[in-house]
Amino acid sequence: SSTGYSYEDCQATADWLLSQTAMRPLVGIVCGSGLGGLANALKDQVAFNYKDIPNFPQSTVHGHAGRLVFGTLKGRSCVCMQGRFHLYEGYPIQKITMPMRIFKLLGVETVILTNAAGGLNQDYKVGDIMIIRDHLNMPGFAGNNPLAGPNDERFGVRFPCMSDAYDRELQQLALDVGSELGYSDFLREGVYCVLGGPSFETIAECRMLHKLGADAVGMSTVHEVIVARHCGMRVFALSLITNTAVMDYNSEEKANHEEVLQTGKHRAEQLERLVSTIVTRLEQNNNLA
Ligand SMILES: Nc1nc2ncn(CCNC(CO)CO)c2c(=O)[nH]1
User: Fold this and answer.
1) pLDDT tens digits for 258-286?
2) ipTM given for this complex
3) Whole-number average pLDDT of the chain
4) Is the N end or the C end of the chain the one with fewer CB atoms within 10 Å?
5) For residue 288, how far is its CA from the centre of ligand 1 (angstroms)?
6) What is the pLDDT of residues 61-106, one digit of tens each?
7) Whose alpha carbon is nearest atom 12 of ligand 1?
8) Which pLDDT score is estimated for 289?
9) pTM value?
10) Looking at ligand 1, which residue's alpha carbon is closest to its atom 4?
11) Ligand 1, from 224, 242, 244: best to mutate by most atoms within 8 Å of Cβ?
12) 107 C-alpha to ligand 1 centroid (Å)
């Protein structure tokens, strides 16, 4: 189709990848800003630079490597996006979410997405990990929805339900694993709000979003979740709170990308252990698989 991301285009990219590796991942992982280390936890890696994958978008953001890494986590076959795409890069929204359709055509059943986000909830501290219970899709309110335009029934229905977007069993699994690992005092649950970016929000926007029920704010993830759910994959997502959003006019704090990447480095090891343990448990309780 005109956007270059038709079912056939996605199929061609998936078929190319399936011809390059014998791995058949059941779990897809999307690494957020500064969280690319998650891919390094994979064993028996087979990695492809995005630029070598036919029809795959290119990463342009510092902190996003631009590699698709196949590998195993304790024997479980995974495919990991080291670097994801954002509206603020100027990509059409279908381009940002195309990797979800590639995951689906590779046979992925469960997608785990991570991102860095600003904390709006006043109880949150930098370094907290927030399990995403639900989202506010601000760009979608203005019609910028990845499913807008002709619907291909081979992916999913015209009007998909989003009230069950974030799998409740996987949220509970994450809480259980988090407490087992001793992460409970920095493990939260909340609502993630996506904005287009690249400018960070104003103080008035932070206060508005907080009043609207958002616990964290970022520039990604929601678009991928909508497309992943549309084609029937299960979704689990979490935010690393890399800074607390500026909420009052007397504050001297200023959001910046370096701080985002720095926080990612500190907490990344625990985030990796949390995600890899969740992945391991996915296969064991086959009612969760
Ligand atoms: N206040 C605030 N803090 C944040 N920390 C990470 N992000 C997500 C955006 N990340 C961008 C810039 O770091 C890179 O994708 C945000 C955000 O959007 N707002």
Assistant:
1) 777 777 677 888 998 999 999 999 865 44
2) 0.98
3) 92
4) N
5) 31
6) 776 679 999 999 988 999 999 999 999 999 999 999 999 999 999 9
7) 257
8) 44
9) 0.94
10) 118
11) 242
12) 31
The continuous run of DSSP H or E covering 151 comes out as: none
C-alpha separations of 228 from 27, 89, 178 in Å: 12, 21, 24
Backbone φ and ψ for 90, nearest 5 degrees, come out as 90, 5
Q: What angle do CA 91, 93, 94 make, to 5 degrees?
A: 105
Find the helix or strand (DSSP H, E) in which 94 lies. helix 93-106
Task: Say yes or no: CB of residue 217 within 6 Å of ligand 1.
Answer: yes
Angle at 278 between CA 276 and CA 280, to 5 degrees: 70
Pocket lining: 218 vs ligand 1, CB cutoff 6 Å: yes
Q: Which two tokens stand for residue 86?
A: 């954002």
Residue 263 half-sphere exposure toward CB, CA atoms < 13 A: 23
Pairing mode of beta strands 110-119, 234-244:
parallel
Active-site residue set: 33, 64, 86, 88-89, 116, 219-220, 243, 257
**All residues at 6 or more sequence positions from 188 whose CB lies less than 8 Å from its CB, including other chains:** 121, 123, 124, 128, 129, 130, 131, 215, 241
Type and span of the H or E element at 21? none
3-state class (DSSP) for residue 215? coil
State how far the Cα of 79 lies from the Cα of 185, in Å rounded to an integer: 30
Q: Is the CB of 140 under 6 A from ligand 1?
A: no
Going by their DSSP bridges, the two strands 110-119 and 129-137 should be labelled as unpaired
Tokens 């287009």 belong to residue? 196
